[in-house]
Amino acid sequence: MFPKIFIKALLSIFVLIVIYVAFVLAVFVPNIERHTMALEERIGETQLQKTVQIVNSAALEMASYQASALASHKQTLEKLTTAAWHIIAQKEEASRGQGADAMRQKQREAINTLRRMLYNDNDYFFISDYRSVLISHPYLQDIDFSEITDLYGNLIVPPMVQIAQREGKGFTSYWWKKNNDDPKAYEKLSFVKNFEPWQWVVGTGVYIDNIEEEIASRKEALIKRLQ
């Protein structure tokens, strides 16, 4: 048998241990849990802020690309049209002082040259006179467009002639079918330039959805990068 004093001492130690454990559970554990939760919240907030920053940065990048893509295509249209304009100008210069027959011959040469000029497989140039008659076009040659409208009732060629005469050059848009197999209307952006000596307007265009396809492809790549 253990002495009573030993048993009492052992019980006292046990009670103290129980009290200490209870104190720790009552005081320290909740504090640890609170600190842990607070730390997790701060980490979560930091990650969320980083995610928001990344998404905002991606949105700005996408908006910048959209603007630059449209600007790039506009610049390309203007350069191409200016190149075609110079072909006409060279023909006109070669006909100066040669008489009316020589001028008409050079006009026919310019018309035929531009009608055969294709780029990007199926993009083309066109020439309209001031009456809105397409005197050079690979598919709509010599058709009077003075009253022809797009699929939404907007005149197509007269606005081109007007802006070319008024500003010397400029952009217009209209809605048109890409081919006979597709009944849907697509917006087409055109750039035109005035050639006053012969009262011609020369231009070319691009379908807006072609630009949008480029943007969609860039957006898909950006989303994959974010994921």
How many alpha or pi helices? Answer: 4
Which range does the strand content fall in?
Answer: 15-25%
Structural class: alpha+beta
- Considering DSSP H and I runs of 4 or more, what fraction of the residues is helical? 55-70%
Summarize the structure.
This protein is α+β, with helices and mostly antiparallel strands and 227 residues long. It contains four helices and seven strands.
Q: Care to describe what's here?
A:
The protein is α+β, with helices and mostly antiparallel strands and 227 residues long. Helix content is 61%, strand content 18%. The chain has helices spanning 4-95, 100-116, 157-167, 208-226, and strands at 118-119, 123-129, 133-136, 143-144, 169-176, 186-195, 200-207. Strands 1, 2, 3, 4, 5, 6 and 7 form a seven-stranded antiparallel beta sheet that branches. The longest helix is centred in the first third of the chain and has 92 residues, at 4-95.
Q: Key features?
A:
single chain; 227 residues; alpha+beta; seven-stranded antiparallel β-sheet; 4 helices; 7 strands; 18% strand; rod-shaped
